[in-house]
Design a protein that fits this description.
Layout (H helix, E strand, L loop, with lengths): L4 H26 L21 H16 L1
Helix pairs in contact: 1-2
Length: 68
């Protein structure tokens, strides 16, 4: 079942809003300045650091947000 143009627009809007909230929350938890985020975000910790996965998730969310 295909989405109508209106349904697709609504879904993208809601996804973008959710990602904005999630990115903001992750930035607060990780003490990252959200104003400096872009798709070239460099994870500031080593891959064996306990916060690495959270930073990786943040990076993926920023990339997904930019694609919407």
């Amino acid at each position: 079942m295909a989405l109508s143009a209106a349904q697709e627009t609504l879904a993208k809007t809601r996804a973008k809003e959710y990602l904005e909230w999630s990115i903001f929350t992750m930035c607060q938890l990780l003490d990252v300045d959200s104003a400096t985020l872009d798709t070239s975000y460099t994870i500031p910790v080593a891959s064996d650091h306990p916060q690495y996965n959270a930073h990786d998730c943040l990076k993926k969310q920023v990339i997904a947000h930019s694609k919407l």
